[in-house]
Amino acid sequence: MPNSRADLAGEALADYIGRHSTPPDDIQRSLMEVTEQATGHQAGMQIGADQGTFLQILTRAIGARHAIEIGTFTGYSALSIARGLPTGGTLICCDVSSEWTDIGRRHWEHAGVAERIDLRIGPALDTLATLPPIWHVDLAFIDADKTNYVHYYEALLPRLSAHGVMLIDNTLWKGTVLDGADVEPDRARDRDAIREFNAHVVADPRVRCVILPIGDGVTMIQHR
After folding, report:
1. How many CB atoms lie within 10 A of CB 153?
2. Can you state the percent helix, strand and coil of the chain, rounding each to 5?
3. Which of 8, 39, 46, 67 has the largest CB neighbor count within 10 A?
């Protein structure tokens, strides 16, 4: 799998960061390899190893017990979050593909975290609408269709616990969020949706936010 930092940090620095970060274990490497074999060029949708380590550390650091992710793909991010949860912790995964998430299921079981993961197949906004009004989340991770980012954010923010953290992936979109940056025509809509989302969040008086230059850009959000 390509280094997820290369587009932002450059190949040399990305390689250095990778060599000085905790490497993937056997289960994670297997998941990367199976994802590449099964999905071809779409394997690029999988988060990088550095992001996985970051998710696991952060989940554990904030003491998250209830987590949710929107966009599971083949389950690398879910594996990382679930490993950071304590015994009895739960992660709700929202995705529309049984085929891709089945890859994740096998690896979650192998890693011994399957009992912490509640996979819900169907549109994420519909899944969120079925959750009890009193249900709150300590960690939320959004990595799905970019045109719905604002909608996912607005649906999740009222459910974010007082000290909870929301993370949104791909918020630098390979650097093309900058004015004048080149972007392929078929990716322009997603680029524009990311720009809209970034502007929406930074102007929201309810939260504080920061964009981290990890992977393809990860925005961290918390209630003020």
Report:
1. 22
2. 50, 20, 30
3. 67
What distance in Å separates the CA atoms of residue 24 and residue 201, rounded to the nearest whole number?
A: 32
Cα distances from 66 to residues 23, 29, 116, 119, 221, in angstroms, run 26, 26, 10, 14, 16
Residue 89 reports pLDDT greater than 90: yes
Output the pTM of the full model.
0.94
Q: Which one has a higher pLDDT value, 222 or 184?
A: 222
Nearest to 210 by CA among 152, 168, 154, 153: 168
Q: How far is it, in rounded angstroms, from Cα 65 to Cα 185?
A: 41
Please say whether the beta carbons of 67 and 140 come within 8 A: yes
Position 6 scores a pLDDT of: 65
Lowest mean pLDDT among 158-162, 179-183, 209-213: 179-183
Other residues' Cβ atoms within 10 Å of the Cβ of residue 116: 20
